[in-house]
Every structure is written in C-alpha cells, then in structure tokens.
Amino acid sequence: MAELVEQAAAQDPTKKFVLFDVAYDKKKCGGCTNIYSIVYRYNETGYLAGVVAGLVTRSKTPRTNDANVVGFVGGQDIPVIEQYKKGFIEGVKAVDPSATVESAFAGSFSDPVKGKQIANNIIGKGADVVFTAAGDTDKGVIQAAADAGVWALGNSSQQAANNKVDGKVAVLTSSDTSVESSLADAMQLIKDGKLPTGTVRSFGAKEGTNKIVDSAPYLKYVPSAIRTKVSDIQHQIVEGTLDVG
Questions:
Q1: Same domain, yes or no, for 94 and 149?
Q2: 166 and 145 Cβ atoms separated by less than 8 Å
Q3: Which of 28, 38, 64, 160 is positioned for an S-S bond with 174, CB 3.0–4.6 A?
Q4: How many domains does the structure of the chain reveal?
Q5: Residue 215 burial by CB count (10 A; 0-12/13-18/19+): exposed, middle or buried?
Q6: Tens digit of each residue's pLDDT (9 = 90 or more) over 159-169
Q7: Residue 229 above 80 pLDDT?
Q8: What percentage of the chain exceeds 70 in pLDDT?
Q9: Does the residue 245 lie in any domain?
Q10: Which of 45, 104, 98, 106 is nearest to 69 (CA)?
C-alpha cells in the first residue's frame, strides 16, 4: 500500500493522502509533503499480550499446564509482525523470566492450514497460551487451540467477541490495536483543514488504540489478581512510566 500511495502522491502533489499502518519513505515521493502517515506501536500490543500469556500460563487458570511454555505465530516475517513478536517476548519475560516462548512465522497472512500446523507444533511443545498476529492465518491458530483445549490470544476486538470454534471458546482475549480512533482523528483534521501532511504520527496505548479487551472469557476464567496486574501495566504504558521500546 505504501508504495502505491507514494507514487500517487508524487504524481499529484496538489492532493492530500492519509497512509495508515505504515510510514512513508521520503526518498520515494519527493519528500511526501502531501502525505499524513499513521503508524501503531505494535510492540506495545505484543507486550500486553505477553504479559497476559506469562501470567496466565503459570496460574491455575483452566486449560493451563505445568510446562510454563507460551507461543507466538506471526504471518509474514516483516517489521510490523517483528514488533508484535519482540513485544510479546519482552512482556512474557517481564512477568515470568523462566517461561519459554516458542515462535514461528507462517510466511502468509492467508493460510489457515499453515497456521494450524504451526500452532499444533508449538502446542506440542507444551504451550498452553498462543498469541497470533497473522491475518486470516489466525483462523488456523485459533482452530488448533480449540482442538487442543488451550488458549489462543487474538489481535483484534472482533476475535475477542467471536471467540468460539465449533461452539467451544478458544480465544481468551485479544491484545487489540484499533485503527478507528486514529482514522476518525485524521478525518476530523481534514474537516478542520489542519491535516499535518508531511508528518508521521504514532499511536499506542497512550492514545487509546492498544489495549487488552475485557472479553467475557477473560473476565470469567482469568483471576482478578491477574487482570488487575495487566491493567496496572497497561496504565504504566499509558502514563509513560513503563517504556516497552
């Protein structure tokens, strides 16, 4: 998407463009003075998911075991997904340094079969919580979690709401990155004639885009002490007292 927008912006400098989920490259569009770029701090999203996974795996939450292993499945091995992975590992280790994190990339955002295969392999190594950030490949990861009787962690509010597979709850919660508020903000800036083109703005927990979803399974199965700990860490990120890189 970025390359196409950069080309269009260079061809018609009189028009303004909003590019979200990726930063523009000034070298490719004559400075990009007519593009407003929105990016998201996915390392925060991953970190929060890691905190949940690290706390849940060592708890007495249903479907957990004594292996102290959690997992991550990514789509393509690209910078955005690397941010998810890096944050996830750091979040797990922050609350449970002894935990083992198994991770793998599917190489695709549209291969549920591969996602299920990878998740099964990770679950086979003892993982009882698996975080997925893989587009449609997520479906296979969530299916594997349902089949094995372990927890999947999603990356969107939709996955947290539609958490069942074949009638069985599979998604414990999601570490959500919502694009809605940042895009609504951009539309308001356009309406007000104040769109800051030529800049890149970052959104995260502080701006309300990155958060753990209080889904029904999360509230039902996760002990209140863990949920309080997760909320405290999320608040620290919002306040800037915890830097997750």
A1: yes
A2: no
A3: 160
A4: 2
A5: buried
A6: 999 999 999 99
A7: yes
A8: 100
A9: no
A10: 98
| Tens-digit pLDDT profile for residues 185-210 | 999 999 999 999 999 999 999 999 99
| Cβ-contact 69, 124 below 8 angstroms | no
Same domain, yes or no: 142 and 35: no
Closest residue by Cα to residue 92 from 25, 23, 160, 46: 46
DSSP classification of residue 199: E
Residue 155 predicted with pLDDT over 80: yes
Confidence bin at 29 (pLDDT 50/70/90): confident
CATH, residue 54:
3.40.50.2300
Are 149 and 48 contacting, i.e. CB atoms less than 8 angstroms apart?
no
Query: Which positions ≥6 away from 42 have C-beta within 8 Å?
Result: 80, 81, 83, 84, 87, 133, 177
Distances from the Cα of 122 to the Cα of 56, 92, 164, angstroms? 17, 16, 20
pTM score over 0.90: yes
Q: What residues make up the domain containing 58? A: 43-177+213-239
Mean of the pLDDT values across residues 106-113?
98
Do 49 and 102 fall into the same domain?
Answer: yes
